[in-house]
Amino acid sequence: MSSNMPPVAKKVPTERTHHGDTVIDEYAWLSNKEDPDTTAYLEAENDFLKQQTSHLADLQEQVFQEIKGRTQETDLSVPSRKGRWWYFSRTEEGKQYAVSCRVPADSDAPPEITPGIRLDREQVILDGNELAGDSPFFSVGTSSVTPDGTMLAFSTDYKGDERFTLRFKNLETGELLPDEITDIFYGGAWSADGSAFFYTRVDDAWRPFQVYRHTLGTQEDVLVYEESDERYWVGIGLTRSEKYLVLGAGSKITSEVRILDAADPAGEFQVVRPRKTGVEYGVEHAGDFFYVLHNENAQNFELATAPLDDPGTWTPLIAHREDTRLLEIDAFSDHAVVHFRRDGLTGLRVLPYSGAGETWRERVEASERNAYEIDFPEPLYDVGPAGNPEFTTTRLRLAYTSMVTPPSVYDYELDSHELILLKRRPVLGGYDPADYEQFRDWATAEDGTKIPVSIVKRKDAAKPAPTVLYGYGSYETSIDPGFSVPRLSLLDRGFVFAVAHVRGGGEMGRRWYEDGKLTRKRNTFTDFVAVARHLKASGWSDRVIARGGSAGGLLMGAVANLAPEVFAGVVAEVPFVDALNTILDPSLPLTVIEWDEWGDPLHDSDVYAYMKGYSPYENVDGRPYPPILAITSLNDTRVLYHEPAKWIARLRATAKGGPFLLKTEMGAGHGGRSGRYDAWREEAFALSWIIERGTS
Q: What is the percentage of the chain residues whose pLDDT exceeds 90?
């Protein structure tokens, strides 16, 4: 095969019939990961990609050096206090992974720490570089210290398939315990006394469905909970107060919580309230009562309280509001903080327990009367609680960023209401926020709905300009205004960067999400196209390059089919582009639990017809398409590699235009390559392709 010619995937017609509809899938064979023909085809695609992009090598290297040059490679996080220790992490120049550390807490003020300089009595908890060794992939799934600070539970993955091995380390002696547990999921929780660790396992469909209890020094772990409903995931955590273990089971639309006294790890978990279809709730321990955040008869959620001896009886505290989506509640000994979303932006509401009253109910009702919100000056930003492990504290740690302000860590002093900047991520190379400007614009969708758009550009950039338009639009996930070092390589070349906050996301509340899922999913795609057209019509953009990943990759494939003429290029990362075939197959990872998000085409003919009408792979036709770059990973367990492989093969065989390129990471998972330098090079590759599309 000539290196100038793209690979041609063989066609092996595979017939399937659903609801009387017979479909031929000629590239289904690519789903066989063990077939040598599959590996050969993916490697041929990678070779073709290298040939097609070899002229971008200098630009790729330039962008990589820009990212590297703007990043303070030897850096550290702001210490967070937990018990007798301050915990933080270091990164060091030339090393791929972070190093987790701690120092004794001699006072309430965080220690003065300097990048590259070790502290007296500094202890390394976990060195990712040492653990990774020469492995091309490495990831930590959990890192959890016992309440008394003496033992560490940590899990590692060396393939990218998100199957972790759990180990335990004595932090007083540095000794690794012989206990070793394989094939576990993310997360986990310690009992109050540190004698037992709870963890989860997944089934063959990659669904976390079991919770086990491991007692240190023993070999037989105890199954404490198994979820039989295939729509539900399970997880386990320890409350900030360290008084309760919380075991949650949830589908996309329903949840059920069980609690257990953390001092009694062998006890029985108590159900807070039995699951009721469509009702989601979470429980937070607040000392002598519980907070419950729920959506029963409250689309945007309501905050309630409940007594410790009757956690299923809920009394409203913050009532439902049409304009405010309550996101989470963080409880402390003397106050609580509500994280919320309003008008497309996040915010924080503080509830101080400083009012009159002798009972907990009187105190908490007074806290709502005295509640206040923290103000922030920028027109676009994202804020949320961050690193608040201590139950008793007079400060709130929060994370803040905007499209021009690098990620920042503040302590908010609850007594004085003062915001104390602890750290703003350094951006080297002379970055000045005053050189850039951000805007909130609004596009009009086909049905008249106003779609928010976040925009950032250099102040001196000409208009109209080449534009990268990013979107996601699923699972109520919000793409909030945030800062990006790699993005500066676009902005400094005159690009505009925009985020289309399309329906299916959560930017405008729960209704925004519901209007972009199930049989209203097309709104996600038409909203994005409407934003792209608006950017051109209003003078922002001359050419638009679309970018999205995972479910946002479905968006990319759908808009390429809907309006290929609107886009100068499309970057689809780990894209969910074979949506119909995947959601039809209950044996695949995630399928059954996804039916609440997309519908069940296997058993419902109307859902089948609706999904077939938008699924990217099913709707490729012979029109001219823009250039498309699809990026995937062989070990991805969420969006399997064969989806973009099949999509590119069909585009190349059916559509005009292009070119259509496929890049497969042969040793990574859903998040791509794991080391930070490797990740920067991957981003530099994508950005160089985008720059060419926008400027050629």
A: 87
Q: What are phi and psi of 193, to 5 degrees?
A: -90, 0
Give pLDDT, residue 639. Answer: 74
Average pLDDT of 543-548? 98
CA distance 332 to 396: 10
Distances (CA, A) of 432 to 68, 198, 327, 401: 17, 47, 33, 15
d(CA 244, CA 286): 11
Given a cut of 70, is residue 674 above it in pLDDT? no
Share of the chain above pLDDT 70, in %: 97
Distances in Å between the Cα of 293 and the Cα atoms of 39, 42, 280, 281, 451 are 48, 47, 8, 5, 28
Tokens of 217: 């020094």
Tell me the fold of 135-279: Methylamine Dehydrogenase; Chain H (2.130.10)
| Under 8 Å between Cβ of 497 and 511 | no
Strands 196-202 and 189-190: antiparallel
Residue 291: closest CA among 193, 363, 344: 363
Catalytic: 670?
A: yes
- The pair phi, psi for residue 667, each rounded to 5°, is -140, 40
Residues facing 398 on adjacent strands = 385, 410
DSSP 119-173: PTT-EEEEEHHHHHTT-S--EEEEEEE-TTS-EEEEEEESSSSS-EEEEEEETTT
Protein fold of 37-69+429-695: Rossmann fold (3.40.50)
Amino acid 667: pLDDT: 67
Q: Is cis: bond before 136, omega within 30 of 0?
A: no
At residue 90, does pLDDT exceed 60?
Answer: yes
Is 474 marked active-site? Answer: no
The yes-or-no verdict on residue 354 having pLDDT over 80 is no
The closest of 270, 275, 273, 268 to 259, measured between CA atoms, is 270
Among 339, 501, 642, 670, the active-site one is 670
- Catalytic residue (choose from 139, 155, 478, 550): 550
636 is catalytic: yes
Going from N- to C-terminal start, the domains of the chain cover 37-69+429-695, 135-279
From 382, 411, 515, 636, active-site residue: 636
Which of the four pLDDT bands, split at 50, 70 and 90, describes residue 638?
A: low
pLDDT score of 109: 75
The pLDDT assigned to 112 comes to: 81
